[in-house]
Amino acid sequence: MFLKELKIWNFRKYGAKGNNNVEPGITIPFHKNFNLLIGENDSGKTAIIDAIRLTIGTSSSDNSRIKEEDFHINSQGHISESLKIECIFSDLSEEEAGLLVEWLSFDSKNQYELVVRMKASKINNKISKGRIEKIVTAGPEYAESRLEGIAQDLIKTTYLKPLRDAENELKPGSRSRLAQILKSHSTFKESSIEDQHELVKIVNEINEEIRKYFDKPFKDDRTIKNEIQGYLEHFFHIPTKGDELYNPKFQVAPARLFDILRKLSLELDDKVSGLGSLNLLFIATELILHNDSQNLGSQLTLIEEIEAHLHPQAQLRLIKYLQSKLEDNETNNSSQFILTTHSTNLTASTDLEHIILVNENIAYPMGEIYTKLDSYDYKFLQRFLDSTKANLFFARGIIFVEGDAENLLLPIIAEVIDRPLHRYGISIVNIGNTAFQRYAKIFSRSQSWLEEGFPELKIPVSIVTDVDIRPLQYYSDKDMVKELYIIKDESDVENICSLYKNIKKEDLSPLIGSTFSSFKSFKKELEGYVEDFENEEGFYENFKVDISQEIIDLLRHNKKESIEKKYNNLGSNIEVFVAPHWTLEYELALSSIDKYLAQVIHSVRYKKPNSTTNERKLQTLIEKISNKENIEDVAYEIYKPLNDKLVSKAIVAQELAQIIQSNKTELKDTILTDPYLDYLKKSIYHVTEGEAHD
Fold first, then answer.
1. For strand 362-365 and strand 355-359, is the pairing parallel, antiparallel, or unpaired?
2. Is 301 within 8 Å of 336 (Cβ atoms)?
3. Whose CB among 14, 35, 196, 518 lies 3.0–4.6 Å from 26's, allowing a Cys bridge?
């Protein structure tokens, strides 16, 4: 059995919804094996963990009292008088169902499920004013009964709190966690009083040897035991010989199994007894119950902030081990883990389908049935979602970019227009290519999710990309053939699809605006999309056009429209912002900061930028910029060294960012009113709470 779902009403930050507040404030579906709860600070991850353990109890009998501060306070400051939590268990074995039969109900598929319900309310009568009453029941609502005895033990969870004191947890004592763990293991179950556990027999033998030792005389034929007996005779005025009531006995420990277990400690070699190593030892000890095949019940483990006291490599090894172990046991559901973390390393190392993002009092599971990602997307992201990109799960907004230049320049532009990204908790994620859709779909929700009444993700996502249509000046400069094969618009896509029935329109739509210098290159591209490509050269003559400014403008418009359409259906929180002419650097060359860009490219390109010859080149270009007789002629001349890869785009962006930083006061109005930088500004506004206000 495993915890399938958690529902919370009026517990801490989670209130209630719907008419008369009958709907839960939050519903969290769990994966049957492994779950990683992530989100920014104060998103409610700890409240979810506490809701589970306060409802079903813990194997170490942690404090399960409900306190005043556990009751929800709404936006008007009203404190709720009651709270409710439901833990729904599914996939029960026949043996588990037999033990829990009086509390079972049925789910929508007519399968057994166990609904454990904790209710707490404040008692405000004259006798019990201020007292909080808590009751745990199970079964169909309004027909439930108290959960008691073995039923309670079957659902108890193992709980590893954050910043745990692993050293003390593994030491002997009356509240020894080690003893609790061992006691729950089938190895330490006693079937009857007569059938003594081997440990009890060992301790009995030791105690017998100890008694013999203390029965030996040490002086004047007296023993320590005789001395004590003599005093007891005076104290109690009765003889203490033989098997009388006050006959003292020396022993190492009482010969009862649990008392023996409470005397045990578990340690590592002194050479490896650091805090991190002890935490791993403690976790390893907790996990022995998950390998105990004789155990029944949920075998659920809750671990808060698993990264506490563990260095990054130890975190990764632990997560990878847990995931591999659970994959091996997928068929028998032997273990279930629910963890919380702030670690991008752990998040990046966890398969996306096991992640649950907690945002604005809503839990968003990332499994395939909940998002618009398909199985291939998951495989892709599993390979490329590294710790750098994993910071997107902890941000209040994300800007996806395709290169270093945007990554370097957007933060400084945001600062210039009074929207510093750090203030708004925005992360820039450099994809390094144009595979935006896969990353953006992480923040989209499936149709089935929305149809069940759950909301879209509210985290705003901006995608900053290029239209990538070369200007007319490029073809003149490269002395290229002006007659090209082009997929101009959707009608061209439909024509190709009519010839090849096995190709989907959405597969070819990304090619709108693509240009090919020959039929050979056009054919090569289409062969990647069309099976059994036929050499219909006559058909493709319809796609041949003479390059002109009108064609360039048409391609820019259609390509931009195609890119925007591609992301329109992902969700209202996701918007794409396109460099409308070519690339980011080309837009900068068209913009009012063109002189700064030209100067930076010049200084990076030449080893001696201030030589007479090179200085003359720069001055000539500056004059052209000032005159701007043909703005795209000048922009292409500025951009050409970048396009020809004579200089690094990243280095140019870094240098330009420093210049903008140094002149941000005088550049603020210039950047705010520049139409060529408008798409960058809008991408920043989208993730920083909308348009700027006067």
1. antiparallel
2. yes
3. 14
Q: How far apart are CA 4 and CA 114, in angstroms?
A: 10
Six-digit token string for 441: 């779909």
pTM of the model: 0.81
Alpha-carbon gap, residue 184 to 180, rounded angstroms: 6
Q: Which residues contact 588 (CB under 8 A, 6 or more apart)?
A: 594, 597, 656, 676, 677
**What are the structure tokens assigned to 342, written together?**
């702030």
Q: How many CA atoms lie within 13 A of 563 on its CB side?
A: 23
What pLDDT, in 10s, does the model give residues 310-325? 777 777 787 777 777 6
Rounded Cα gap, residues 639 and 598, in angstroms = 8
Residue 94, Ramachandran bin (φ over 0: left; ψ between -120 and 50: alpha; else beta): alpha
Length of the chain: 694
- For residue 59, give the nearest of 297, 309, 339 by alpha carbon: 297
The pair of three-digit structure tokens given for residue 166, joined into one six-digit string: 């692993």
Count of CB atoms situated within 10 Å of the CB of 569: 9
Strands (E) in 217-340, as ranges, are 300-303, 336-340
CB 510 within 8 A of CB 516: no
CB atoms within 10 A of CB 637: 17
β-pair partners for 23:
17
Burial of 262 (C-beta count, 10 Å sphere; 0-12/13-18/19+): buried
Tell me, what amino acid is at 163?
L
Quote the crossing angle between the two packed helices 404-416 and 678-687, to the nearest 10°: 80
Q: What is the pLDDT of residue 694?
A: 38
CB atoms under 10 Å from CB of 94, counted, come to 8
